[in-house]
């Protein structure tokens, strides 16, 4: 589910703690996919934030952005020892290999640790402050996602109600379609054998084929899947993957129902229309399920 949350912290002059802004944005995704945009040299804090997000969230593509700034402008500082060591090694290598070249200042300043700024003052107190506000941001994000989830739940219940009604309509037509299929098979067999075969044998073969075309099992399973689906909507916790699996099973039953009733005229055509309506409701539900944990 989608959502956005942002928290800010002002600079603490008493402890020289810098100000920071932390924002979270989530969009739909089958799994939990975390993307972190943070200042350099904050690997330890990044790991803690990842752990926190995994504890509080189950699905979604989540972007976390953390920006830190010093009070008073946050001037950068040059790591002179690191830069001096790089220059000495560069000159030694140039002399050894007879290379006439000069160090590139831009390349030097891009080296990890060459410049230190806000990230260099992320101490334990700063980490604790960021993690505390991160929990607040996650709660806001999840509250927004939960509100969206209520609307999705209502939509899915409407879809299941429509699917249940279509299933009932098909069930009421099952006997008529079976009779039509039986008659069709019997007529075709009479046509092929020219009326020379034993009548009882023809009826037996026709009955077997008609039984294979019976859609009672598909109807029973569809009803059971719909009941299970609604029970999961009533339950708490992570249900998105289970709902998606149930919809796959429903789609399988709808496909089987359509294949069994293919080629039957009259009410058989009506069942084909209803079967396609089933698949439409199922597919629309699957689109929504991708947004649910």
Structural write-up:
- With 293 residues, the protein is an alpha+beta fold.
- It folds into 3 domains: 3-75 and 123-145, Ribosomal Protein S5, domain 2; 77-109, no CATH class; 150-289, Up-down Bundle (Butyryl-CoA Dehydrogenase, subunit A, domain 3).
- It contains 8 helices and 6 strands, in the order E-E-E-H-E-E-H-H-E-H-H-H-H-H.
- The strands form 2 sheets. It has a 4-stranded mixed β-sheet with strand order 1-2-4-3, covered by helices on one side. The chain has a two-stranded antiparallel ribbon with strand order 5-6.
- Helix 1 links the parallel strand 3 and strand 4.
- The longest helix has 70 residues, at 124-193.
- It is elongated and about 105 Å long.
- The N and C termini lie close together (8 Å).
Topology:
Elements: E1 3-9, E2 19-27, E3 32-37, H1 43-56, E4 60-69, E5 77-78, H2 80-96, H3 105-109, E6 115-116, H4 124-193, H5 199-212, H6 216-234, H7 240-261, H8 267-289
Parallel strand pairs: 3-4
Antiparallel strand pairs: 1-2, 2-4, 5-6
Helix pairs in contact: 1-4, 4-5, 4-6, 4-8, 6-7, 7-8
């Amino acid at each position: 589910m989608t959502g956005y949350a942002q928290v800010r912290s002002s600079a603490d002059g008493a402890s020289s703690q810098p100000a920071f802004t932390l924002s979270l944005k989530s969009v739909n995704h089958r799994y939990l996919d975390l993307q972190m945009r943070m200042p350099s040299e904050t690997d330890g804090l990044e790991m803690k934030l990842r752990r926190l997000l995994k504890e509080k969230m189950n699905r979604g593509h989540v972007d976390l952005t953390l920006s830190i700034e010093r009070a008073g402008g946050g001037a950068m500082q040059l790591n002179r020892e690191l830069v001096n060591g790089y220059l000495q090694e560069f000159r030694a290598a140039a002399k050894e290999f007879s290379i006439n070249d000069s160090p590139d200042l831009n390349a030097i300043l891009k080296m990890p640790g060459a410049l230190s700024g806000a990230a260099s003052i992320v101490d334990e107190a700063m980490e604790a402050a960021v993690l505390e506000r991160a929990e607040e941001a996650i709660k806001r994000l999840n509250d927004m996602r939960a509100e969206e989830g209520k609307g999705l739940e209502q939509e899915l219940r409407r879809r299941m109600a429509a699917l249940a009604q279509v299933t009932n309509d098909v069930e009421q037509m099952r006997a008529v379609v079976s009779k039509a299929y039986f008659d069709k098979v019997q007529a075709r067999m009479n046509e092929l054998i020219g009326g020379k075969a034993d009548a009882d044998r023809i009826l037996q073969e026709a009955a077997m084929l008609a039984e294979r075309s019976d859609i009672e099992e598909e109807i029973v399973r569809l009803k059971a899947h719909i009941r299970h689906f609604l029970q999961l909507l009533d339950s708490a916790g992570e249900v998105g993957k289970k709902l998606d699996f149930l919809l796959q099973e429903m789609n399988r039953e709808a496909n089987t129902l359509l294949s069994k009733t293919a080629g039957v005229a009259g009410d058989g055509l009506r069942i084909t229309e209803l079967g396609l309506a089933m698949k439409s409701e199922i597919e629309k539900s699957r689109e929504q399920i991708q947004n649910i944990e």
